[in-house]
Amino acid sequence: MANPLTPGxxxxxxxxxxxxxxxxxxxxGGLTAAVLKEIDRSLNAHELIKVRAAGEDRDARSEILxxxxxxxxxxxxxxxGKVLVIYRPRPESDSKPRATPKRKxxxxxxxxxxxxx
Length: 117
What we know:
alpha+beta, 4 helices
């Protein structure tokens, strides 16, 4: 990633990731092209994701995290046990504007009718 995370951004992203569930599972087959494509798709949709990596070797999971971040231009936020947290901001041109929910107009309450002259 061109801009590494600042300590403040790192702390905020770890807090945001706390409630997330893993969206991609890396099995015994390791990091394949299909898994990388799925991680890329998930990062495009969510920006911040958790990935669960199978295997007992911590160094192998660290290598998987490094390869994912290198190949997808993402930042490693956290690596705890078998869970990897990865962040990649959406490009400004691709970001979807959040739709504001349309609300119904407020209905006049009974009391407002009683107080009219």
